[in-house]
């Protein structure tokens, strides 16, 4: 096993709010090797975006971050702003749910691509232009030369996301963070974009983090999955191991609640009752306890730590894990 | 399975409906000659990608947007020909639930008043009677009337706001509800709660539903039959189970292939048909799907395919349907 490209060590993010201190990310540990894909899954508000912003060092001003983010041998938390800026867009790239977050509405697509390329790579204008055209072609934009002169609003949502991906890929990043890159897109376009990301990743041997609330999106495309709940990693495992045998009641409930194509119409869905806890009012015990059908007194008293039992790379935070082999576990 | 057959007297009969929008000097062909029926007590699912005209169709059925041509027969009466008091009276029997539950609630009004509003508009003057109805529907959707009636929308989560919207849509005892993407804005776990609630309400109040969504699995979970829409036209209509097992229209097949399945052993179909839907301002001639269809030939650009029966109860608008 090679040394990880990215190591998130004991990262906590807190935000001051009128209701009090909000712990958006709560002691998270994750790591990712070059060329691999990590899927981060969880419901709205569980801290996926805050965690990725912690990696990118793009947190809201008032946010308080503790822990370390080791990327390619340096701790991003302690890196000077100037070095960080050079790193972002070059080795560390990001694609957001709304492509307009990263596109400038008043600049042509060509200008935006060429600016990024020339800022980070030593290419002259004609070379940067040539590279822009190659990139647009690579992300599946028809007639890329003509597109260079167009503005983002002249493109469909799917096209804009392709362009945002082209910009993110323009300097051959080592890590691409895609925060819900397809949530705003239609299924057929979503499939095209996910294929595109997977293809470019293989070709560039890039590491990738895909953030989504859809277990279906990560199932076929991530090497490893981390399930987050209330700011913490609740379960983390290689994708196939996770889907074969999930140990966290939350992961099980999340999967069960998804309507299945092969289920007969009018089959009642096993819904999870209630909703996640208020992040400004953290619970003493397991954050899932109020909704968990396996909860006991112990779950309400103490927080389960992330541990493994059968397989060292399958971690879960639960006192009463499910689907354990005979004789192992709590 | 008698639920599959459209019974002799459908509650809703939409006949060759055409809805257009003016955009500068151009015309958006949002709904172009759509026909379907919904039987009493049935749920018809309507799927299709963004911009294909689902909401426009739903709103035109309820006369919130007037059609350019075509008819909407509700319980035998043509809504498109109705006006004034007659239309208002008819509207009590039909309701609409929106995608964005928070935005569709007035932020300055209390929940009790929001839910009571349709009763006031309908002329229910007895305050005690209104209160009784509001309590009844709020309890029905799983909210405690005493706890929620006095509070404001911002104090509730998206899922709770959708419950409130459903309560409001039920308060006049409607027969028919258009649900326009009622769960699209909700998290997986909350989505399941709301889908179950809609099913429960349907059984309890004997409702007929037109259920709009872009998620096929969501649609299948609640629908007896499903209609697939592409760029203003229906591609295929049929019993849910049958349509998903044996799609006849190439677009239905494309949609099915594109769905991410939560199972790592199911490899995503590498590169589902490329391209994007063309603009409804200048839709392709003939079959509107032909620019993305792997089976398209000359006939597809020359001739508009009509909905034809391809299997019992299943209809597809395609010159070269899948076997
Ligand atoms: N700027 C902010 N100030 C204060 N709190 C914030 C801010 N941004 C997010 N939060 C809170 O931090 C928590 C984590 O939010 P985050 O955006 O990381 O969730 P997420 O998992 O990305 O959700 P989604 O799926 O909705 O994008 C939430 O409780 C959210 O309300
Ligand atoms: N008021 C309007 N003026 C002009 N064009 C409109 C108007 N409303 C909708 N349209 C256009 O009509 C077409 C159909 O829109 P509609 O909202 O019915 O689609 P939809 O299937 O509901 O899409 P979505 O899944 O995004 O809700 C689209 O091309 C849309 O841009
Ligand atoms: S620790 Fe207890 S409450 Fe938490 S997920 Fe496990 S069984 Fe449920
Ligand atoms: S009519 Fe032709 S273009 Fe349209 S779906 Fe059928 S085969 Fe494809
Ligand atoms: Mg987010
Ligand atoms: Mg719509």
From TrEMBL, chain A:
One of its GO terms (molecular function) is ATP hydrolysis activity. InterPro entries: AAA+_ATPase (IPR003593), ABC_Ni/Peptide_Import (IPR050388), ABC_transporter-like_ATP-bd (IPR003439), ABC_transporter-like_CS (IPR017871), Oligopep_ABC_C (IPR013563), P-loop_NTPase (IPR027417). Its main location: membrane. It is a peripheral membrane protein. One of its GO terms (biological process) is peptide transport. Residues 6-255 form the ABC transporter domain. The keyword Cell division does not apply. It is found in: Cell inner membrane. GO terms for cellular component: plasma membrane. SUPFAM superfamilies: P-loop containing nucleoside triphosphate hydrolases. Keywords: ATP-binding, Cell membrane, Membrane, Nucleotide-binding, Transport. Belongs to the ABC transporter superfamily. Involved in beta-(1-->2)glucan export. Transmembrane domains (TMD) form a pore in the inner membrane and the ATP-binding domain (NBD) is responsible for energy generation. This is ABC transporter ATP-binding protein.
From TrEMBL, chain B:
Keywords: ATP-binding, Nucleotide-binding, Transport. Its main location: membrane. GO terms for molecular function: ATP binding; ATP hydrolysis activity. InterPro entries: AAA+_ATPase, ABC_transp_ATP-bind, ABC_transporter-like_ATP-bd, ABC_transporter-like_CS, Oligopep_ABC_C, P-loop_NTPase. One of its GO terms (cellular component) is plasma membrane. PROSITE patterns: ABC_TRANSPORTER_1, ABC_TRANSPORTER_2. NCBIfam families: oligo_HPY. This is ATP-binding cassette domain-containing protein.
């Amino acid at each position: 096993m090679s040394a990880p490209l990215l190591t998130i060590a004991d990262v906590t993010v807190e935000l001051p709010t009128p209701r009090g201190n909000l712990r958006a990310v709560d002691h998270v540990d994750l790591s990712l090797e070059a060329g691999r894909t990590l899927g981060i899954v969880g419901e709205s508000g569980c801290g996926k975006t805050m965690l990725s912003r912690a990696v990118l060092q793009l947190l809201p001003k008032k946010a308080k971050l503790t822990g370390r983010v080791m990327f390619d041998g340096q701790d991003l938390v302690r890196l000077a702003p100037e070095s960080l800026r050079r790193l972002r867009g070059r080795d560390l790239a990001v694609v957001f749910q709304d492509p307009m977050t990263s596109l400038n509405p008043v600049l042509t697509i060509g200008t935006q691509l060429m600016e990024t390329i020339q800022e980070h790579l030593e290419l002259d204008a004609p070379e940067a232009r040539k590279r822009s055209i190659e990139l647009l072609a690579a992300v599946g934009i028809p007639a890329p030369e003509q597109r260079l002169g167009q503005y983002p609003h002249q493109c469909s949502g799917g096209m804009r996301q392709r362009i945002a991906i082209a910009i993110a890929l323009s300097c051959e990043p080592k890590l691409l963070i895609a925060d819900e890159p397809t949530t705003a897109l239609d299924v057929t376009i979503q499939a095209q974009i996910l294929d595109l990301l997977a293809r470019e990743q293989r070709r560039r041997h890039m590491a990738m983090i895909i953030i989504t609330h859809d277990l279906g999106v990560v199932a076929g495309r991530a090497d490893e999955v981390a399930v987050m709940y209330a700011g913490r990693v609740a379960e983390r495992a290689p994708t196939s191991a996770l889907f074969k045998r999930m140990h966290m009641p939350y992961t099980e409930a999340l999967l069960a609640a998804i309507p299945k194509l092969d289920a007969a119409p009018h089959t009642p869905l096993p819904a999870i009752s209630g909703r996640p806890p208020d992040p400004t009012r953290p619970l003493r015990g397991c954050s899932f306890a109020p909704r968990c059908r396996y909860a006991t007194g112990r779950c309400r008293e103490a927080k389960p730590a992330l541990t493994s039992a059968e397989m060292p790379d399958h971690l879960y935070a639960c006192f009463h894990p499910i689907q354990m082999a005979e004789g192992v576990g709590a | 399975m008698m639920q599959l057959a459209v019974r002799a007297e459908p509650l809703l009969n939409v006949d060759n409906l055409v809805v257009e929008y003016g955009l500068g000097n151009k015309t958006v062909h949002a709904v172009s000659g759509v026909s379907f029926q919904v039987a009493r007590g049935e749920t018809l699912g309507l799927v299709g990608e963004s911009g294909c005209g689902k909401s426009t169709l739903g709103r035109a059925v309820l006369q919130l947007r007037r059609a350019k041509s075509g008819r909407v027969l509700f319980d035998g009466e043509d809504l498109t020909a109705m006006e004034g008091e007659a239309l208002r009276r008819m509207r009590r029997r039909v309701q609409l639930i929106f995608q964005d539950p928070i935005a569709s609630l007035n932020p300055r009004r209390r929940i009790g008043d929001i839910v009571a509003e349709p009763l006031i508009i309908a002329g229910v003057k007895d305050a005690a009677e209104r209160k009784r109805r509001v309590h009844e529907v709020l309890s029905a959707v799983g909210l405690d009337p005493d706890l929620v009636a006095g509070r404001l929308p911002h104090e509730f989560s998206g899922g709770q706001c959708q419950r409130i919207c459903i309560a409001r849509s039920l308060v006049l005892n409607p027969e028919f509800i258009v649900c326009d993407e009622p769960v699209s804005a909700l998290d997986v776990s909350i989505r399941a709660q709301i889908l179950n609630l809609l099913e429960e309400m349907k059984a309890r109040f004997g409702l007929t539903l037109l259920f709009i969504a872009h998620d096929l699995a969501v649609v299948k979970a609640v629908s007896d039959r499903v209609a697939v829409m592409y760029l203003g036209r229906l591609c295929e209509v049929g019993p849910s189970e049958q349509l998903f097992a044996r799609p006849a229209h190439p677009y239905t097949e494309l949609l099915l292939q594109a769905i991410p399945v939560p199972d790592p052993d199911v490899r995503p179909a590498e590169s589902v048909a490329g391209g994007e839907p063309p603009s409804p301002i200048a839709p392709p001639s003939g079959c509107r799907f032909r620019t993305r269809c792997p089976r398209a030939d000359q006939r597809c650009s020359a001739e508009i395919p009509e909905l034809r029966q391809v299997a019992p109860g299943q209809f597809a608008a395609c010159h070269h349907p899948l076997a």
